[in-house]
């Protein structure tokens, strides 16, 4: 199967199993009729058109509005059209009812199926003169209203799944492959193979995961990470399927296709999250199942009471109305729709929910434990400062960059990057040689240059100039690497390099603390290094010099002190801590092991997303509770009215009105869930 269609298949299969492809979330009803909006739309409009003459020729309506329609055969309009409406318009509910019985999971579809079947049988009995009550118009109108409610529901769910569907449509249909001779040919993405090199032109989408082999571009990865600002990618950097080269052409060697791509993985995570159940969902499912038995018992009691009172017509109408009004439709929709919307919202922001229970628990988190390296820091060295004994900072940095020009060492790359950022003119170096354990040597402008640490100075029998001692001590206490730059036998300056704190980390910590959440940092680095980062970020507590296998002990320690803990990390040694925490969050391009241990995955490297997860958790839970109260409260109040509890006062709830109220309850729940889209996840 080709890459594009593999991803489309993943999406389609997910849609059939995650919450509304079946009706397990609606009290157990199965989807055996293809629950798509178009089906319910078409059945609704035709059923409504046929219901109109059924209602118009109803004796009840003609009596209410004082008019008469008389022609030969008029009495057969309702039975003929009503029978068609029952079998065609009511088919989704009848098939669903049979499925409920087969699965032994009674729910909404069984209630609706029972209601329309009783009304259908009673109406035919009346038509044939065997019974006094005839409810053709109520049954027909009920089916039309139910179809309308399902149509609106399916539309809402389809919109909630828009982000997942959009992911499947991001990949281009074709790609431009570059052969060994440099010739470019267009082919379908399905024909690409691992190892192929493709040309991605400015504005074009990367067809599959790969590594840039030539060129550089600002790449828009917002569909994966949620970060709207393009990031610079150059030779050797990894790019993911569906990302966009915004300004320049790049050549990419394909490393993963189809289901192996990052995009496909995200699709699977989103689909799995939408199909997973939270504690609130389990509660709603139990309530919906319980409501079925309550409705059946209430309908039976209603029928018996009215029959004992000698009102057989009322016994049928009232019991059918009870079955209609008690359908746990709103209750079944209360949680799944919020789940779909919140999951698609989070995916658009680069937050991938693997476990719904983890998202639900996030609102109660009162302590977040961040791994330092790669999470709060970038996990790569950067020039933190330059101190000079002779000349100026730019000259010292340019000379060091010249000597390091051919080196692939991380510290060397950091020096070269700093020189490039300052737009310095770097002189040419010759006779470059790297001596392990000492440093790098080169000839620059005819002078001998060396760049290295304390071992270099010892070998050259040099020392740090007196004016630079304080700076060297300060950097050393922070855990920074201080490299000496030696020019013509003299130390002309020091360059400090340290793991760079992410600019976003300060905002992330501040946002959590303002919400009343304490923050801790955990690292295997020395206490002085950890304290320096903790002080810079204003962190509440620091765990330093922690062995990899002991990180989960730190989580356990916080939990033993009464805190509900979220652990944020990206490495293999974070996996046990992620698993032990109340909520495990894997950040950025974390390892597969860390991702497997986490309940939430942040596709990007922005720690501010942790606050966004907590906001989404609170907002989602609030909507779930509101929907549950509305759905359950509606049934508690409506069932007695449907049974005729106020008949003594002259009030009876008509069957059609009951159907409209039930559908209205569903629409209220759906609209309330849609309000979740207004929640701002970013500060």
Structure description:
The chain is α+β, with helices and mostly antiparallel strands and 683 residues long. 51% of the residues lie in helices and 17% in strands. The strands form four sheets. Strands 10-22-21-20-11-18-19 form a seven-stranded mixed beta sheet, sandwiched between helices. The chain has a six-stranded antiparallel beta sheet with strand order 2-1-3-9-4-7, with no helix packed on it. Strands 12-17-16-15-14-13 form a six-stranded antiparallel beta sheet. Helix 24 (592-597) links the parallel strand 21 and strand 22 (600-602). The protein is elongated. Residues 1-34 have low confidence and may be disordered.
């Amino acid at each position: 199967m080709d890459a594009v269609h593999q991803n489309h298949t993943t999406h389609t299969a997910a849609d059939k199993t995650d919450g509304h492809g079946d009706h397990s979330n609606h009290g157990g009803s199965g989807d055996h009729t293809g629950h798509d909006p178009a089906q319910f739309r078409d059945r609704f409009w035709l059923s409504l058109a046929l219901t109109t003459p059924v209602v118009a020729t109803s004796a009840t309506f003609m009596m209410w509005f004082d008019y008469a329609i008389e022609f030969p055969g008029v009495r057969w309009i309702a039975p003929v059209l009503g029978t068609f409406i029952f079998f065609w318009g009511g088919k989704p509910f009848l098939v669903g009812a049979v499925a409920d019985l087969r699965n032994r999971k009674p729910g909404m579809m069984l209630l609706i199926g029972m209601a329309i079947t009783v009304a259908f049988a009673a109406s035919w009995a009346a038509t044939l003169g065997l019974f006094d009550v005839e409810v053709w118009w109520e049954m027909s109108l009920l089916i039309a209203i139910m179809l309308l409610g399902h149509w609106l529901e399916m539309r809402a769910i389809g919109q909630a799944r828009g982000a997942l569907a959009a992911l499947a449509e991001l990949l281009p249909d074709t790609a431009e492959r570059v052969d060994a001779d440099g010739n470019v040919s267009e082919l379908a993405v399905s024909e690409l193979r691992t190892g192929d090199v493709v040309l991605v032109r400015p504005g074009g989408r990367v067809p599959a995961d790969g590594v840039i082999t030539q060129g550089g571009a600002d790449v828009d990865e917002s569909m994966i990470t949620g970060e709207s600002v393009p990031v610079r990618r150059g030779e050797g950097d990894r790019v993911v399927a569906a990302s966009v080269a915004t300004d320049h052409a790049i050549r990419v060697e394909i490393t993963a296709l189809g289901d192996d791509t990052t995009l496909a993985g995200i699709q699977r995570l989103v689909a799995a999250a939408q199909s997973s159940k939270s504690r609130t969902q389990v509660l709603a499912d139990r309530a919906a199942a319980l409501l079925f038995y309550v409705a059946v018992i209430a309908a039976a009691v209603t029928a018996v009471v009215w029959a004992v009172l000698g009102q057989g017509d009322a016994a049928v109408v009232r019991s059918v109305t009870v079955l209609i009004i008690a359908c746990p439709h709103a209750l079944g929709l209360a949680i799944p729709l919020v789940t779909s919307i919140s999951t698609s919202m989070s995916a658009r922001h680069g937050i991938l929910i693997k476990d719904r229970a983890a998202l639900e628990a996030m609102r109660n988190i009162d302590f977040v434990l961040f791994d330092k390296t790669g999470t709060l820091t970038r996990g790569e060295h950067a020039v933190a400062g330059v101190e000079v004994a002779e000349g100026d900072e730019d000259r010292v940095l340019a000379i060091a960059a010249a000597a390091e020009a051919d080196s692939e060492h991380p510290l060397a790359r950091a020096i070269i990057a700093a020189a490039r950022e300052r737009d310095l003119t770097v002189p040419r170096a010759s006779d470059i040689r790297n001596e392990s354990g000492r440093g790098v040597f080169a000839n620059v402008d005819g002078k001998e240059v060396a760049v290295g640490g304390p071992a270099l100075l010892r070998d050259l029998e040099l020392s740090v100039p007196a004016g630079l001692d304080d700076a060297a001590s300060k950097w050393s206490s922070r855990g920074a690497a201080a490299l000496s730059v030696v020019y013509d036998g003299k130390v002309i300056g020091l360059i400090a390099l340290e793991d760079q704190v992410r600019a976003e980390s300060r905002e992330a910590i501040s946002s959590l603390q303002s919400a009343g959440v304490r923050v801790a940092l955990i690292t295997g680095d020395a206490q002085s290094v950890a304290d320096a980062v903790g002080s810079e970020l204003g962190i509440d507590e620091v765990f330093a010099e922690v062995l990899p296998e002991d990180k989960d002990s730190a989580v356990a320690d916080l939990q033993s002190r009464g805190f509900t803990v979220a652990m944020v990390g990206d490495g293999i040694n974070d996996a046990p801590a992620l698993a032990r925490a109340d909520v495990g969050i894997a950040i950025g391009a974390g390892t597969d092991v860390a991702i497997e241990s986490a309940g939430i995955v942040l596709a990007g490297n922005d720690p501010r997303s942790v606050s966004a997860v907590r906001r989404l958790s609170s907002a989602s839970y609030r909507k779930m509770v509101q929907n549950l109260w509305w759905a359950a409260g509606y049934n508690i109040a409506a069932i007695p009215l449907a049974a005729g509890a106020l008949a003594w006062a002259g009030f009876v709830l008509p069957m059609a009105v009951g159907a409209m109220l039930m559908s209205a309850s569903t629409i209220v729940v759906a609209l309330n869930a849609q309000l979740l889209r207004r929640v701002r996840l970013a500060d």
